């Protein structure tokens, strides 16, 4: 096939482009800007555009498919040319479905934990020498790309995202996948820019449940009241609740407790024990025994940017997490505190997404940082303005968290404050989907452990 990507530089888009080239398709693409790691990885595979911008002349009638990324706009010149020529235009999830529509599809959805569960399932399947297609929203040890497609596999494991499919397709991405087995980890209102009310957000998950194939299975976390109220409504499927896998914490590490043994893990936190249990159930559906699962989970080191240890000394450990939504921030903070309850915890959160900077949404963060002994919240007023949101005041942000948080609007002052006031010995948790206005977080983590 001849396939062209509009907005090839996106995190998901460039991985799909690489995967399709690996399947010997002819792939081209355009974008108005591409940053690393997408830029380097596209260059490595010979897919980096020669110039930035949109070039309608690249859109020719011989193209078998055009894949449209969310970064593009409805008036994109290449999109308009494709529409004029009557070419088949796919959203990212629509194309994934077309590639895997004859396979057993296992879809992991929910407001939090979906990347981690998908990563665990992928790790276990690979450890057990199973062939499978996959799509995950994080880089995982042992996998070069975040998308893998093969003609030899008969199952597909996808992370199911509730965000919109494309600029011209307002459906949630996960509605395309029509799973045979699905997981929903929980429902906590997010993406307020496209789901302006909690009711509208919950509706996406109701529709997702309805999209499960007749005779299919749904595993859902029983501790989420919003989720349990909608999980049992579809009589054509089997809905089964799950809870956290039994575990214990000893000497700063988490251990799974089974009927026959205790298994040391590289990951920790109650939310990850929920993720492990969900992954175990999904792996059963893929033909994996408990023995195979427990053997494989011992070598799972976690997904990139999910409770990642940046630096560690005897007196200070610096963790990084992609957490930005309220439920994720709360779960991650609680996890780090639980693994070393005797240590003081300094938690740092950057508000960077549209939802987190929205005055109507910010109260959702109430008590999200309560487990931290010292809590910092940062936002950049210029980002608020760029997103065309009402101005925020540090006082308002502080009131929304309901904790004794300190709020900063200057990244350099924040970093200096952390360096001089972080508890020692202790743990430092940095949470963001951004980069604190260009701060090199890894370099900062090294400097702060050296400082102490």
Structure notes:
The chain is an alpha/beta fold and 452 residues long. It has three domains: 2-87, Rossmann fold, CATH 3.40.50; 95-297, Mur-like, catalytic domain (UDP-N-acetylmuramoyl-L-alanine:D-glutamate ligase); 308-451, Mur ligase, C-terminal domain (Protein-Tyrosine Phosphatase, Chain A). It is 32% helix and 22% strand. The chain is built from 14 helices and 22 strands. The chain has a seven-stranded mixed β-sheet with strand order 7-6-8-5-11-12-13, with helices on both faces. A hairpin with a 2-residue loop joins strand 14 (247-250) and strand 15. Helix 5 crosses helix 8 and helix 5 (114-127) crosses helix 9 (290-297). It is globular and about 65 Å long. The mean pLDDT is 94.
The spatial strand order of the largest sheet comes to 7-6-8-5-11-12-13
Most strands sheet:
7 strands, mixed
Briefly note the structural class of the backbone: alpha/beta
Separation of the first and last Cα atoms: 57 Å
Anisotropy-based shape: globular
- Average predicted confidence as pLDDT: 94
Total domains: 3
Q: Whole-number radius of gyration? A: 22 Å
Main CATH class of the largest domain: Alpha Beta
Strand content: 15-25%
DSSP helical segment count: 14
CATH arch. level architecture of the largest domain? 3-Layer(aba) Sandwich
Q: What is the helix fraction of residues, given as a range?
A: 25-40%
Q: Using DSSP, what is the number of strands?
A: 22
What's the CATH H-level superfamily name of the largest domain?
A: Mur-like, catalytic domain
| Spans of at least 5 consecutive residues with low confidence | none
Tell me the CATH topology of the largest domain. UDP-N-acetylmuramoyl-L-alanine:D-glutamate ligase
């Amino acid at each position: 096939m001849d396939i062209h990507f509009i907005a090839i530089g996106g995190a998901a888009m460039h991985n799909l482009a690489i995967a399709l080239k690996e399947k010997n398709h002819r792939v081209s693409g355009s974008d108005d800007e591409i940053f690393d790691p997408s830029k380097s990885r596209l260059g490595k595979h010979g897919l980096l555009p020669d110039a930035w911008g949109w070039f309608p002349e690249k859109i020719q009638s011989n193209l078998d498919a055009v894949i449209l990324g969310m970064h593009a706009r409805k008036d994109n010149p290449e999109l308009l040319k494709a529409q004029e020529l009557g070419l088949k235009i796919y959203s990212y999830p629509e194309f994934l479905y077309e590639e895997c529509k004859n396979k057993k599809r296992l879809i992991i959805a929910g407001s939090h934990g979906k990347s981690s569960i998908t990563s665990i399932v992928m790790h276990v399947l690979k450890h057990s020498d199973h062939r499978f297609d996959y799509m995950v929203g994080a880089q995982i040890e042992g996998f070069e790309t975040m998308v893998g497609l093969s003609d030899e596999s008969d199952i597909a494991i996808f992370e199911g995202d509730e965000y919109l499919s494309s600029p011209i397709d307002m459906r949630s991405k996960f509605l395309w996948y029509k799973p045979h087995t699905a997981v929903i980890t929980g429902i906590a209102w997010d993406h307020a820019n496209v789901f302006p009310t909690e009711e509208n957000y919950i509706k996406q998950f109701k529709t997702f449940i309805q999209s499960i194939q007749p005779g299919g299975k749904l595993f859902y976390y029983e501790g989420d009241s919003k989720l349990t109220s909608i999980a049992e409504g579809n009589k054509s499927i089997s809905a089964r609740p799950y809870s956290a896998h039994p575990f214990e914490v000893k000497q700063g590490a988490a251990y799974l407790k089974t009927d026959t043994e205790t298994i040391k893990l590289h990951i920790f936190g109650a939310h990850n024990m929920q993720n492990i249990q969900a992954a175990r159930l999904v792996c059963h559906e893929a033909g994996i025994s408990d023995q195979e699962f427990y053997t494989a989970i011992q070598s799972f080191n976690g997904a990139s940017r999910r409770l990642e240890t940046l630096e560690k000394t005897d007196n200070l450990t610096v963790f990084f997490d992609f957490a930005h939504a309220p439920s994720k921030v709360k779960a991650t903070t609680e996890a780090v505190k639980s693994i070393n309850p005797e240590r003081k915890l300094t938690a740092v959160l950057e508000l960077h997404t549209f939802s987190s900077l929205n005055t109507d949404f910010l109260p959702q963060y109430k008590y999200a940082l309560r487990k931290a002994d010292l809590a910092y919240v940062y936002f950049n007023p210029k980002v608020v303005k760029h997103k065309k949101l009402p101005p925020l005041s540090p006082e308002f942000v502080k009131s929304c968290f309901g904790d004794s948080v300190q709020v900063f609007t200057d990244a350099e002052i924040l970093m200096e404050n952390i360096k001089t006031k972080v508890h020692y010995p202790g743990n430092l948790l940095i949470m963001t989907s951004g980069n604190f206005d260009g701060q090199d977080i890894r370099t900062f983590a090294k400097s702060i452990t050296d400082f102490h």
